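Hi R.,

Here's the chain you asked about this morning:
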Amino acid sequence: MKKAISVLSLAIAAGVLVGPKFAGDSFENLLEQQVQQINEMPGYSVELTSYENNWFSSYGVAKISLDPSVINPEGSELPTIEFETEISVDHGPVTLNNGFGLNRISWQQEVINPAELQEKLGITESLYATKGQVSLFGSLSFVETIPAFVIKGDTTTVDFSGYQSSAWTGNDGLLVYKGITDSLVVKDVEREMFLSDLSMDMTADIDLEKIREYMLYDGEIELNVGTIRADDLFSASNLNVSYLFKTSDDDSKGDMTLQYGVDAVTANNLDLTDVSFDMTLLNYSTEFNKMYNQEMIKLMNHDSSFDPSQMNKVMADSLPVFLGAKPEFKIDKIHFSLPEGSFDSNLSLKLINYQLEPAQMLSSAFWINNVQLDAVASADKKLAEKLVALVAAQKMKGSRRVSSAKAAEMAKQQAQMMLGMFSAQGMIKQEEDKYTLSFSMNNGEANLNGNPIPLPAI
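And here is the predicted structure, written out as tokens:
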């Protein structure tokens, strides 16, 4: 028994002594892999200018640069952004730099602020800082901080309240992330833009190996903004954007859902409420996602200037892989309301009954015979008249011979005439107090509001 206790004590002692060095080496390898992956991304560059791996701790400095002209050719006049960040790591099983803890590693990272930037922003702390740890059992947790700052230029002022986030992995292995910002205000001599109550929530089954290989993974992201206001020109309240991705059991494809919603929007002569836009992409190919991203990165990293025609070629070459998974695109809902009424529509689009071959891509008959399209739209009568009148009034706006009041009256009359003409021609249907439109295309045949129509006329 005594001998067994002695052997166990030696094993524990060896773990305590060897463990820190092993954790440090593992973290350094992971860091080098991440640096390599970031450097493969167009416009980004990361260089570990120094890294010292000791027994119980490590310390390093990385230089990061971002070239906007590579990411967006229209931003060629923007200067390259460069900054340094320092990383300090404690190797477990006992870590101290984030307070006492039993962890594999714990770390702190801070952007090194240039003196002129600190003076311009009026801050003493790092512009971005994060700290976290990986526990002995493999769970991850970290927090991020961007301090509040004010930028005062000759004509523009930016007032940012700061950003805080926290993240952790639960017992199910999913990463949970939550971030909040109270407000962002941008002012110039003529106008002011204001955002308040920004928050982001994310849950994801993140696998670094999948990310490195451009594979798909399950995840859900939700972004909320309490208020957006740009003087009297535009305002919106309770904006919500959510994204959900669910992979198939064999990881070969996935289903994507994107939803937009706003409680109320005011812009020009419109007062919209209950605005929503939901769309879905089913059977999105993992192989297409991997191929397309790899080819685009190669293209954007090429020495020659970015050529849009080459991007089109990449898309054309990978399109058979995309279509091979039998994708289906849906606009599940477009909805909004005005005082005059509500508008609703939906659409579904997919290819059916086909065995994909490269020659088919060039055949118009293939697309006509294999596209299945169904679309429906409806609007309350008064709302339809208002929307058409707004379009007509916009066209008359440039005329100096017509007053605004007269233009509005003429536009209203013209809207009623146009809707009556569309109804008489069968392009729309009037049902009680609504105008409706339905269109379908299947097996090479098209139908508008229940009436077959020849495809060459479309």
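One quick note: Residues 2-39 form the longest helix (38 residues).

Cheers,
M.
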